[in-house]
Amino acid sequence: MTETTHANRRAQLTAERERLNDELTTLGIDRNSYDEGFADSGQVTAERGEVDALVGSLRETLVDIDAALDKLDAGTYGQCESCGQDIAEARLEAMPAARLCMACASKRR
User: Is 86 helix (H, G, I), strand (E, B) or coil?
Assistant: First the structure.
């Protein structure tokens, strides 16, 4: 992978990390705005569950992004964590924080 590609991936990952952090901040504010006096407490509980699930997903994605940025620094970006082979450029383009090659990702499904 070229230096330009690495720089582009780093910029892409950094921008996505900032976007996710902004979204988490927004959700954190909204999360505290539930009306405890609302008559339908089931709806409030359901909404909280949805927000909690979304927050969990965003945090997992942030972990993947941070790992990818660490790999860029270490010179191991683009290598499958399972088999050690290179991850296809098309996969990295679609998912810059991908940890696994397609073959290994397919085995985990």
Answer: strand
* Cβ contacts of 53 within 8 Å, gap of 6 or more: none
Give domain limits for the chain. 3-78
pLDDT in tens, 31-71: 445 555 555 667 667 777 888 888 889 999 999 999 999 99
Q: Cα–Cα distance between 84 and 101 in angstroms, integer?
A: 9
Q: What torsion, rounded to 10 degrees, do the Cα atoms 81, 79, 17, 48 define? A: -30
CA distance 11 to 16: 9
Sign of CA dihedral 9, 71, 2, 7: positive
